[in-house]
Amino acid sequence: MFSTPGLGYDRAITIFSPDGRLFQVEYAIEAVRRGTTAVAVKNKTGVVFAVERRNLPLQEHLGSEKLFKIDDHVGVAISGLTADARTLIDQARVHAQVNILSYDEEVSVVETTRDLCDQCQLYTQNAGVRPFGVSLLIGGVDEDGTVNLYLTDPSGAFWGYKACAIGSGSTQAREYLGNEYSESMSFEELQLLTIRTLKEVIEGDLDSNRFEIAVIDAKDRKWKLLSIKENQTLLEKITD
Fold first, then answer.
1. Structure confidence at residue 6 (pLDDT)
2. Which parts of 3-104 are beta strand (E)?
3. Element (H or E) spanning 117, and its range?
4. CATH at 226
5. How far apart are CA 152 and CA 159, in angstroms?
6. What is the residue range of 222's domain?
7. In angstroms, rounded to a whole number, what is the distance separating the alpha carbons of residues 25 and 13?
8. Across-strand partners of 166?
9. Is the Cβ–Cβ distance between 215 and 56 less than 8 Å?
10. Is residue 227 part of a domain?
11. Has residue 212 been placed in a domain?
12. Is the confidence at residue 8, as pLDDT, over 80?
């Protein structure tokens, strides 16, 4: 009685609709929009990632991670289907190690991003597969000290950003970042900015168990996942 949303053009990833749309790619993007909020910001001092945690009373944290290390100098925050993200991140980790073995140098942030987006794009043009229902915020510090941050899309496209947010609260978060971000911020101020951004979009009171933060300082170029105690210390600084 009722026609399907894609009018039959969403039955295979290789079928374009008459107006040039790939509905399965759009469905994957919708999966990202319904995911938890993730924020990433960068300047010359480093990169900071922050993600929302939705904890159930009896749930262990293992299996619901939203922050991942690719190499010491490259990390990722995700929104969307975590299982899809793990597949892409495992590929990125292998690519990073192969680059060291083949060329005796660390993989760059943009090369990591390009490799993952090539994989995502392949899954938009082959029958019998579906797009990856996840977006990634990939950031890091290259060997020459350049700090980079990129956003990937299920379609395989990517863009560079100074500050960005993905997930269910991304629209409001991006507006807040647009008003509050400054390239002259200190590294600690970047961390506080990500917490304030999450506070703007997360319903209810924000406590140290409802978010996670990871950082890559440009000084040592090392990925570090902050502890709950460190999160609490930062949270207290924005509530004083």
1. 54
2. 38-43, 46-52, 67-71, 74-80
3. helix 109-122
4. 3.60.20.10
5. 7
6. 23-235
7. 8
8. 38
9. no
10. yes
11. yes
12. no
